[in-house]
Write a structure and sequence with these properties.
Elements (H helix, E strand, L loop, with lengths): L17 E6 L5 E6 L4 E5 L4 E2 L13 E6 L5 E6 L3 E6 L4 E7 L4 E6 L5 E6 L3 E7 L2 E8 L6 E4 L5 E5 L5 E5 L4
Antiparallel strand pairs: 1-2, 2-3, 3-4, 5-6, 6-7, 7-8, 9-10, 10-11, 11-12, 13-14, 14-15
């Protein structure tokens, strides 16, 4: 546990390589993404796998990034299939698809769940309004970006890549 640094329970055997992890904001679930589009959700409290089964073939390629919505109802998945997809966790239903021109390496929600961001390996950063779904912000860096995070208020995004540079982007200016 975080108080003493000890492992909680036995390790989880996911039977597949793990490439992305996310913890829900209420700290009750962990989402695990891997190769072959595999996604699993573990309930930390009762130590059981949740039933989360998107349609076969719904997620293609490697899951590069995964994020829970702030209320824990949705899961956003970025993959090598040139897109990100958002699923409703309760019934595993695909809710939205966000197309990119390259592999999506990082995804995230704003704290009010009104926007998401996708970061592509092609140097593209997109911020999407969810109601209605549309691109709100689209910019490109000079170097490939591999990691990104959105501020709690959704106004800033930090991104970084192999060149060792972190860039701060304002989502309020188009």
């Amino acid at each position: 546990n975080s108080a003493n640094g000890n492992q909680i329970g036995e390790p989880l055997d996911c039977e597949s390589s793990i490439n992305a992890l996310a913890v829900s904001q209420d700290e009750k679930r962990i989402a695990i993404g891997g190769f072959g589009g595999n996604i699993s959700i573990w309930n930390i409290e009762d130590r059981k796998w949740l039933t989360f089964k998107p349609l076969k073939g719904e997620i293609k390629g490697i899951v590069n990034s995964i994020a829970f919505s702030p209320d824990g109802s949705y899961l956003l998945v970025g993959s090598d299939a040139l897109l990100a997809k958002m699923f409703r966790i309760s019934d595993s239903k695909l809710v939205s698809t966000f197309e990119n021109q390259s592999n999506v390496v990082s995804v995230g929600f704003s704290s009010d769940s009104k926007r998401i961001f996708t970061l592509g390996i092609d140097k593209s950063l997109k911020v999407w309004d969810l109601h209605p779904v549309q691109t709100y912000f689209d910019d490109t860096d000079k170097h490939p970006q591999y990691a990104g995070v959105m501020s709690n208020d959704g106004k800033l995004i930090a991104s970084g890549g192999h060149n060792g540079i972190v860039r701060i982007w304002s989502t309020e200016t188009k």
